[in-house]
Design brief:
alpha+beta; 10 strands; 5-stranded antiparallel beta sheet; about 260 residues; globular; about 25% strand
Amino acid sequence: MARRYDTRTTIFSPEGRLYQVEYAMEAIGHAGTCLGILAKDGIVLAAERRNTNKLLDEVFHSEKIYKLNDDMACSVAGLTSDANLLTNELRLIGQRYKYTYGESIPCEQLVSWLCDIKQAYTQSGGKRPFGVSILYMGWDKHYGFQLYQSDPSGNYGGWKATCVGNNWNAAVSMLKQEYKEEETSLKDALDLSIKVLSKTLDMTKLSPEKIEISTLTRENNQTKIQILPANQVDELIKKYEKSEAEAEAAKKEKEKQKS
């Protein structure tokens, strides 16, 4: 039945589904993992790098995380070519607003305007939906630190912690258990992001080459967006591995005492 209704985005199936939009969301389910965690003193975005070939020229500082303006950055999961186009559009929207009003665009307004464009691509003949989900982190004077997620259908929502991409189900269920609202500091959020990625990524051991982490904080009334260098990421990984080893040793000791 689906084959008769999945050739165009403008045709509903008898069950009321738009198959092309669903296929775009399915493509994101196979993309590199991206997760975001909102802390009380900042935000963390962490992403899985898929292109780790030694022969690649490291021209770009970042592969998965893009700075949009002075107060916002985003991470993408899906088709990088689509993501490049959308991030350029986000930057343009932000700069037009700043030129007109003399201040940074409110976070939700920027997300909403881009989602209007995404939605238009699900309603026009001869176009296909953008195969990319975006996690946005930002700060504005209205609501402080904010984390948003948007998908190919044009839907978006605000989150305290979320994940898109490969194994997102396992990551979200883990975040539900581990995330503590109003208690999580930026340091805790960084540790949690490493823990979630190590448990959900399809790799035996985490390494700084395979993940990218960015933080957004406020210092002296200015937003500071930083992509963590490899040595800091390596320190976080080692810290996590040490705590895991200690927990495992304590567990074995407990079992020994029981027996």
